[in-house]
Amino acid sequence: MFFNNRRVDEDIERIRKANLKSAEHPAEQMTDAKEEESVRNNDLRITFKDIVAIIIAVFSLVLPYLAVLTAAITLLLLWFFR
Questions:
Q1: Residues 52 and 41 in one domain
Q2: Which of 40, 58, 72, 82 is the least crowded, having the fewest Cβ atoms under 10 Å away?
Q3: How far apart are CA 11 and CA 5, in angstroms?
Q4: Three-class SS of residue 13?
């Protein structure tokens, strides 16, 4: 996250190219569009680690509430059937 210098350099280069006049470099814009699309396609892949992280995040949000609900139901049942 903090050491992503390559991506920063790519972004700066894209900004520089976008600020140039379109008439000066029409061929480069076509290749840049293809490169940019391939970079976007590569960045959108969800890996196994991403899925595991999502599952852990959902469990960490839901499990405390389920534990409290289970404890409350257990206490109510014990109180009613003593």
A1: no
A2: 82
A3: 10
A4: helix
In this structure, the answer to whether residues 31 and 58 fall within a common structural domain is: no
Higher pLDDT, 17 or 22: 17
Cβ atoms of residues 10 and 36 within 8 Å: no
Same domain, 35 and 55: no
Which residue range is the domain that position 71 belongs to?
A: 46-82
C-alpha separations of 74 from 9, 58, 62 in Å: 58, 24, 18
- Residue the block writes with tokens 């976008």: 18
pTM score, whole prediction: 0.43
Assess whether pLDDT exceeds 80 at residue 24: no
Same domain for 37 and 3, yes or no, is: yes
